[in-house]
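Friendly challenge for the regulars: who can give me the structure tokens for this chain first? No prize, just bragging rights.
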Amino acid sequence: MLCPERWVLRDKTDDYGIDAEIEIFESGRPTSEFIFLQLKATDHMAEPPQINLSTEHVAYWKALPVPVLILTTVAPTGSCWAVWADELDDVGPRQKSFRFTYQLAHRVTDANFAGVVSGPKAASGESILPRRPTVAIHNAIPLPSPWASNTDDTMRALEKLTSRDQMGVIALVGTGGVGKSTIASQVARAALPSNDVVWWIGDASAHPELALTSGLAALARRLNLVDDASSEPEAASAAIAALETGTRWLLILDGINKPEVVTNALPAMGHGSVLVTSQYRHWHEVATVLPLDPMTNEQAARFLRTRVESTNASAAADDAIEPLAELLGGLPLALEQAGAFVSRNPSRSYAQFRDLLENEGIRLFERAGPPATSRDTVASVWRVSSTAANAECSGTAELMQLLSIIGDGPIPLAALDQLDDFPNWEEALDVLHAYSLCQMTFTDVTVHQLVKMVSRDAMEADELALAARRMATAIQQWLPPDRGLSSNWEAWNTVGVHIDAMIEVSRSDGPALAKVLDLADHHAGYLRSRGLYDESLARHRFLLKVASESAEMEPAMSLHFRCGIASDYWWRGEADAAYAVMEELLPEARAILRPADPTMIDILGMVGALEQVTDQFDCAVRTFEEILSLLADSDQVSEAQLLKFENNLLLARLKCGEKVDDEYAALSERANKLHTENHFDTGTIMHNHALALEAAGRRREAIVMLEGVVRRSESTFGTDHPTTEASRTRLEEMRRLEA
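First reply, four minutes later:
Bragging rights claimed.
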């Protein structure tokens, strides 16, 4: 019985996610303090335990005026674990549920429960209950390993450096798998009570500039410094300006290997620190460098004992611990997986684990050869752990392959739920997590880059291609299809690093590469929707290079990407460059594509747009009439496509001097019904509708309409987005003429 006898425990029958309440009594008198309890149990033996929580319930608990404690009992052992609802990170509205893993500090017993709930009583006699913690504004900080130690010299040095009043950059450097991200996560969580902002920017190894800009833009929106969907550079600049004020803050940049990125795009002053984790060691010109070396043999042996002492006491006294610690080279990633293997089953021992390693015949144990690298070490441990995991759940090998071909960042659990023919992926994920072959947060899963490397090394080319094709399909099904809505941009922003990784592993397989490149093309369209035209152009050039280098790729794919390049030039205001691309492209396309081919439609659409820009309005009318005629015979055309090309046709006719204001009114109504008034395409149609009204002598109505377009564009896309600027400029011209 955890609840002290002097307190009153009451069941709650009519509730919403609340099972009981405790009223706190001291010296026989009520204190007017209450807590609510949510009671859970699990049959799994793993400790610390993992539970599923409803996002809706967590939001409800946090909104209550009474603190909510989530109390979980591990049925096989009887151990109890408790966490305050306010300690749980916020998750997005798309995530209906998530997994939470308790930490060692969350374990409660009869002896410490009262202290956990109430804490020491204040000398003033104020409330004995801990108030909802005042913590920094923060985003999702990765969970460290429950067994990771935070008492070593590096941790103390980092806490001291990040608590300074002056602005400073600290680089935590070391080889892969040495524990840099885990220590950074611990520092970030320890900094929450003493800072105003703690912000984690990950996924930075592949595209550090883009990751940093997107991360700072997300911070600006969280601080309400800009409109919800302002352009990335504008929002990032606003965040930097805010951090250069009196705010105390900590930024964590995980996996950045380019010092120039940090020096060019971060606050130059302020009361904060930047903590960088990096495998690149030469940061001395811009940062205080803290090298993170592998554990000493003594530290590693202590780690292995601590890792299993609560689940496998006999293994904690195993004589094989010291030699195993030495063989694993003090690498925390390998040590953690070895500990997870032994902890998983009370009948296992470290001696057994060492024997299994030796049976692998790996270079790690060939004393006469060169010393083992961290990749060798992780590869040996991975083979043993993955074999054991697959013996428990046959789906773990399949899931490990799928997770190994994505990028360095997290992948949403909701995307994995879209995997075809994989009903037990959640069970497989639980087993992989139990063996520390992956790490999970509330919303996503991450696999260490070294683990992914050794997993890919064990895969055949056809297995890599199949995994890439399946993951690309799952991601595409998970992504919101409408890239024009700013509310969907966050999801699209997360997948770029994964697309790049999947391209690399599918280059030798035509069908797999085609699937991934299609997803990559949609991602380039997302970049264009955000007004990131330089990034979209670079993306299309890269995709064209990949498609051209593949002997198995259909010519239509290269034509499609060349059309994308022309479109990027057009959006950048470089009509001549776009026209040159299309002049060369169009004859090739007509020679090899059927008239109604989707790529042919895109190419003709680009031709029509360029004809408008070069004042060839009669030609543009004929081009868009041809497109609509082709689409009329297609059973795959969407209403969105029709709206787009009908808008272009009406605009061309308007430029030819035709009266089209009534037709535009009908088109605007259809656009509002299909999308919303805040959608990119709707704004474009309504902008052109205003032009039609002005041409029809209805300038006052046109001004009113354009005022609404500008207002919505500023709030949706940002004040410096090109479409906003175009509408604002035309509105000013109309007002001047009206005056």
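The radius of gyration is 29 Å. The chain has five domains: 8-118, 137-291, 297-392, 554-652, 659-739. Your move, everyone else.
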